[in-house]
Every structure is written in structure tokens, then in C-alpha cells.
Amino acid sequence: MKIEVAEGPTGLLLVHVLGTERLGCEAAYNRFLLHHNLAYWTLIVRASFCDQSLLAQSITPDGHASGEIVIAQASEISAKLTELLESELSHWIVRASASQASG
Asked: Rounded to two decimals, what is the model's pTM?
């Protein structure tokens, strides 16, 4: 089996995510970047070889990684990725603010 890996210049890494799932991931990720005026944010999405689900993980600019989330249905891609990215962004902002206040 050939595994397709696509890495974008803004931090999106897709591992064997194909077709409409790939388009859904790219759209949700790009909307997040544009909405928050970000140039880079690491998001890793990979296909599960055990079932038809996707596994996603966000890594903030300061290197904190989220837990993996499971996206079981293609129809959930946008909502689940948006929820993951927004949550990690808010955690990152809190950490950055605390770091600036103590530094």
C-alpha cells in the first residue's frame, strides 16, 4: 500500500487523507488561519488503517500538542477540526498571556 503524505507550507500535514476528506480538512484549516490572521499552525490529520476514521492533533506554536481526536464521519470534519483548533488557540493565548505577565 502506498501512503500519501501532503505537507503544506502553513503547517498542515495530511497522512493518507484523500478525496473529500482532504478537501474538508484543508477548508477547515484554512478558514481557521484566515479567521485568526495566522500564517502558521501545525495540524496533523491521519487516516486510521483500522477503520474509516481520521485522527487529528494540533500543535501550538510553543510546542504543546493536543490529544488526538477521532473523526468518525466525513460530515464531522469541519466541526471537529474547528473545535480542536479553536480550543488549542485559546489554551495557547492563555499560556502566552501568563508567560508575559510573569516575565
From this structure: 0.93
Domain that holds residue 67: 5-102
The answer for residues whose C-beta is within 8 angstroms of residue 17's C-beta and 6 or more apart is 6, 25, 45, 46, 47, 54
The number of folded domains in the chain is 1
Predicted confidence (pLDDT) per residue in 71-87, tens digit = 999 999 999 999 999 99
Say which CATH number the domain at 49 has: 3.30.160
